[in-house]
Design a protein that fits this description.
This protein has 75 residues and is mainly alpha-helical. It is 73% helix and 0% strand. It contains three helices and no strands. Helix 1 packs antiparallel against helix 2, helix 1 packs parallel to helix 3 and helix 2 runs antiparallel to helix 3.
């Protein structure tokens, strides 16, 4: 039974790493395709996304969501 539990843990860790790499890639693509980047220069966002996982990417996505231009509400 110990071998089965170890393999389940190994698969869970591998799956978490795959999701983390995919999230980093997603954030870097969003950074590269952004028309305007707010609050920090692009290179600083790239460093934050890569080095401060996954918080850097989450903060980048949240900050860009906050800074997006708002459409006026039709009356």
């Amino acid at each position: 039974m110990g071998g089965f539990a170890a393999s389940v843990v190994a698969i869970a860790i591998l799956l978490a790493l795959v999701f983390l790499v995919a999230f980093i890639f997603f954030c870097l693509v969003r950074l590269a395709n952004a028309d305007e980047v707010r609050f920090l220069p692009r290179w600083a966002w790239a460093v934050a996304i890569v080095c401060v996982n996954p918080l850097g990417g989450a903060v980048f996505l949240f900050s860009q969501w906050l800074a997006r231009p708002r459409r006026p509400v039709p009356a």
